[in-house]
Amino acid sequence: PCLTRLCSPLAEKTGKVLGEFCRCYREQYGVALFNSVRYEIEGNGGPQAQLLHRKVPLEDHVIYSGNIFQYIEENKKWRNRFCVVPHNYGLVLYENKLAYERELPPRVLINSAGYKVLTSVDQYLELVNSSLPGVTPKSGHSPILKCPTDFPLILWHPYARHYYFCVMTGKEQEKWRAVFQDCVRHCNNGISEDSKVEAPAFTDAIRMYRQSKEQYGTWDMLCGNETQVLSNLVMEELLPELRTAIGPRLKGKAQERQRTWIQISDAVYRMVYEQTKAQYDAAMAKCEEERPQMESTIRTDMDQIITSKEHLASKIRAFVLPKAEICVRNHVQPYISSILEALMTPTSQGFAEVREVFFKEVTDMNMNIVNEGGLEKLVEYMEKLSHLAFHPVKMQSCYEKMDQLKLEGLQQRFDVSSTSVFKQRAQIHMRQQMDDAVYTFETLLHQELGKLQGKDDLCKSIQRILERVLKKYDYDSSTVRKKFFREALLQITIPFLLKKLAPTCKGELAKFQELIFEDFASFILVENTYEEVVLQSVMKDIMQAVKEAAVQRKHNLYRDSMVLHNSDPNLHLLGEGIPIDWGEEYSGQPEAESAADKRRRAKQVVSVIQDDEGVLPYEVGAEELLQPGSPASQEPKELEEPDPGALPSSPDGVEAIREALAKESLGDGVEAEERLTNGTDATRESEAAVPHATPAAPGAPAPGAETPSPSAGTACHQPSDKETGEEVASPGGQCSPPQPTSTTESGEGVQTEF
């Protein structure tokens, strides 16, 4: 009832926040459009990359699939699910493997943007306890969640619903953790970098809005596509008020109040998401409608706009620069080298590990070809190598180097809330560089194959191409790292400087508005020009620090003066060709496969852990759950009673558990089909829902891609941005209290996560 009363005020508050943001977005859109057209005309490009970049993303693979236990909150039971992670990094859970092979609708679709992957129940309980202050279960009481094994995997989100999984062994847990973290990393990077106008306009508008609320520095919830990020922005303001209004009215035991709070937060988040999407889409449509006229004005009056902007900048520079330089000299300059060193060590180690993993994989392939021989083996290994950058487990040794990143005292000094922003960005660069190296290698090798005679020629050619690619990788990784260091230093220092200068400078900026011609007011903003002046005040020191680091050679960076010009003049022409399909081109099987066969035979990047005896791991796990010392054997009474927070009831005896798990994992074909199609059709609902962003080779998913039909291949069920089930608002525009929709065991609803 209290949520019902708050529904209208929440919608009103959401509308107010979005209205302010959309005003910022419209302002930044004109500036971003001007910058894009100016860059197109003037073309200030950096050094040319030596490695090729994959133009067509790999979409014929599954990252991982396998069985995993999921906790179903509605009936407080753990169920064996078949989880598939397609190439778009959504988490898709099916009733069982048979349901996946029959292309039946999935039970759950999860977009993991904004989530944290936890491998400890204690970690999770600590986060849950802090989410609702004053509500902590007393010692000895049942916590909100109990796990039947020692190997949980929990997806936690500050606003949306949580997901609980567990596996039987530590080895499985590590593999699933690497897969889940890759999903989070990919989905977090949801704003397409291919967009040269909309993306910078959006991110600058977010920054300007937060700065108007005195919130400077990095922001951990800049995660997902634009609608998800905006929903996080709204929830950041709504949640404290919601907690104050609803928290004291929650009834029941502490764990019940925590569970209710999570459900309320999730319901509000979904309501906010729907309203956000509608308002943001309308703002974008209006900007797109005005774009042709704006672009025409920019191209016609480019010189006058540039002259006007430079005149404004000179006036602001005269006012701001003396103060900014003093601030830089006293508060920033002494710490630049320390920040840079903290960034460089783990980042360079990570990129060195990428090089090592690539070298090892190609060298092992070459040795295996020598021992086993033949083009057939080469094809088999090249198919695996082409997906190396998307192998979460093999790439984990590279990614985990960034875990060493610690800014310590610098983090507090410069108001950096978390280092996760920098860790994730470096990891995305690592994956991209690995894929570029692999793609360049396979392109050069493919070109050579027709000229080779015999196994010895092939092995010598592989070694020669590997050496060429490594040289190119060293150059490109140096360029990418130097750019990353410069951007990270700016991300850390600029907000700090803006906050320091705000009391003496920000109030005086309004007087500069009169210097802008009215016709050009859409393309020149005083606030943006002011920030550019502040950036210039520190940029020289940052460039000098990175340059000195390159001279030291300690981190294997090339000097700026070292430029590779046209070392392979025809290489980039090769990258324009048709993507190589090793299996299809060299397998000797010209007959076309059906869509269903392709789905079943889709390459899986990460191999499934197999039990030594060849038994289903969860059949063995059922016996292990009843062994002395296991959580299940220690608390049989709690297993039998459906108390809140307790474990689900279980059949008596090992045989009964074996039978239940076997039935759950294999399923009766007819019954499974009936159960899964009884309720909402996930495929149809996904098509009607907000389209999920599709990956842009292999970076962030871009909004606007349609959900393919089930016959489209392995990724027929892409994670949607909308949850199917009860609507937040009733027909006629009247506001009804949002209820958390859920996955039910009878298939009455299909849960899809943002």
Automatic annotation (TrEMBL):
SUPFAM superfamilies reported in the protein's UniProt record: PH domain-like (SSF50729)
Segments forming a coiled coil: none
Entries under Pfam families matching the protein: Niban2 (PF26086), PH_Niban2 (PF26089)
InterPro entries: Niban-like, Niban_1/2/3_dom, PH-like_dom_sf, PH_domain
SMART domains (alphabetical): PH (SM00233)
Domain PH: 61-185
Sequence ranges of Low complexity compositional bias: 688-712
Residues in the signal sequence: none
Annotated spans, Disordered: 627-754
Domain of life: Eukaryota
Bias type Basic and acidic residues, positions: 655-687
Gene3D superfamilies hit by this protein: Pleckstrin-homology domain (PH domain)/Phosphotyrosine-binding domain (PTB)
The family this protein is said to belong to: Belongs to the Niban family.
Protein name, as recorded: NIBL1 protein
Species of the source: Cepphus grylle (Black guillemot)
Gene name of the record: Fam129b
